Amino acid sequence: MKLLIVESPAKAKTISKYLDGKYTVKASVGHIRDLPKSNKSAIDIEAGFVPRYEISKGKEKIVSELKSLVKKADEVLLATDPDREGEAIAWHIKEAAGIKNPKRVVFYEITKDAVKEAIEHPRDIDENLRRAQEARRVLDRLVGYDLSGLIWKKVRYGLSAGRVQSPALRIIMEREREIRAFIPEKYWTITADVSAKEGAGEKFTLACSEEPRKEKEAERILEIGNRETWKVKDVAETEAKRSPRAPFITSTLQQSASSRLGFAPSRTMGIAQRLYEAGLITYMRTDSVNMSQVALNQIYSLVEKKFGKEYLTPRAYSKKSKNAQEAHEAIRPTNMLSESGGANDEQQKLYRLIWQRAVSSQMTDAKVMRTKITAVAGEGKTQDLHLSGKSKRTKIIAEIGKGEIPDFYINGSRLKFDGWLAADPMSRGEDVELPKVMVGEILKLLEMRSEGKQTEPPARYSEAGLVKELEKRGIGRPSTYASIIKTLEDRGYVEKINKALCPTDTGDVVSSFLEENFAHYISDSFTAQMEDKLDDIANGKIEYEKTLSDFYKPFSKDVKSKDKIEKINNLGEADPAMKCPICKGSMIIKLSKTGKFLSCAKFPDCSGARKITGEELAGPKETGEDCPECKKGKLVERDGKFGRFISCGNYPKCKFIKKDAELEKQNSTGVSCPACKDGMMTERRGRFGLFYSCSNYPKCKNAIKAKPTGNICKHEKGGGANCGALMMQGTKTIPERCSDKTCPNHNPHKIAKAE
Hints:
With 755 residues, the chain is of the alpha+beta class. Helix content is 32%, strand content 22%.
């Protein structure tokens, strides 16, 4: 028997189709080993930063199956993903399953030819790549563990820091401070509706080239503009070209999918992973902008056939970063002749985006005619004023006469030749056709307007914007961008509001603490240098142990030196107008699990408190009842993130929470819990929104993410038994699905297709 091991069941299914039964294909279902949670036992620092791995929880059965198959196999091939992470997974499989002489096969697309070619040219596990991944994992664990421990002591229990997440948070906070410090200025925009040919021509709107900061100046321009005769000062037409962009790499795919499709980076990578495993696109974690000659030939043929020879311009692109990793291709469809692919709507959208980018990269420049019309009234100013930062489009300038008021202009553009935009029409933009006018031609003024506005602060980072910024500064690598952002959201350091990443109070405090005490370690330069060193380990240029030792010894010393600093109990003085609701004294700003709040400066002598917005916080109040669980504490009423609740006064030693019978009844779905057979499935709100769990929590921890329908899943599992899990509400296309993610009926549409 010949055995081929991959990470994903979907990948295993696709590869099996190409091997004609010559290999048994088995999936490890991701990582099978990891570091234990305790840092003391996880890494032997004295022995040279040796990690002590253990079988990941829930993977015992898979490891046992792999061991059994390995014993029967004459040949074992490890075909995990072609990057550091994949190399590490292959090594862990080798170690855990006791494989003596495994061969490593690598392919960058899951097609029949690529898989067979890889099998014909196996290699050994690349120890340099594997050690680079191990170095990153150990490094992140050491930094996270030591910094997080200090933050627990000095800021608040339960907070965390990380080698890459903290610099990313710092970038977000830097922008936030710019926004807070920004002082808006009032300005006026002035426009003029005019028409040519003595009023019989097409109407168009001119904009004033200056934006006055004073209303009187705006009124002066309006007064003169309404009084004087308008005429065309200049008509400038220039032909410009728009060149296509390089095929997608990981970062540009995340950015484009965010701006065009509204996909978060983590969602984009998840969809791309499924497209890759289905054999539809090349590997999606890459810095390379190159495509194979086979793919290029397919594109050349497609462009000539679909668009014409004049649309074809073969191009080569250079890598964006000096640290472009591994020998991957750019992200492209495996079959360039196929314009669509994917099992569902979101996969199809992302596939189409990838196809458009790859095809258009080998097409002719688009040609655009840009026009600028300038107009004045009477004599006007003698100099033209050009605004910076505007899009390069046609610009019409109109001159205003006596009184020396600014020129007025309009920009326009029209597409002369679509070129690569024929394959990627969403990049085209709108044509702005301008009327034909001559220099010196009299214009009829129809109406002038002024509008008072305020200057805007710099915008907060979107997910796409942050990915671009991280890439620019050399922080993280393609495989980590999505996880960095997700970690910041999961930790509660940022929240997404209208697509913008907004730092929370907690994120603000944590970032400020790290910037004050560990500025060097969360700086752009240091973080980028560490990424370069990890790349050097991967390339065999430097040693694993020395790299970690050079970093950790001074870092550990710095962390220990900060143990003497005072705990942050005071984040600053509150507004003097905010008085303590009890003693009427001054208040200070503090941090709780739910964010910043105002506390009496005399605490603990006075327990007065307010929300950061000023509303009074009543604080814990005893109900007079004894705790039924610990029998020692008194029940108290507290303010929580989601309102008032009753719990034991000995929290956190006793975590008893009294249920509100009325609220439980109100939130009950009326569906019995199939796990304990006693409780009812009840609507609850948690950190990630609504979910449904058993009313007997924490004794019964059965929970599902969508509202139960009341039906039980009857899908037949192995041995003839039914699944038995609750059915829950789905989508418009899938009204009902099983709540058990391991059950095929969780995705009933796939069952239907398989049948």
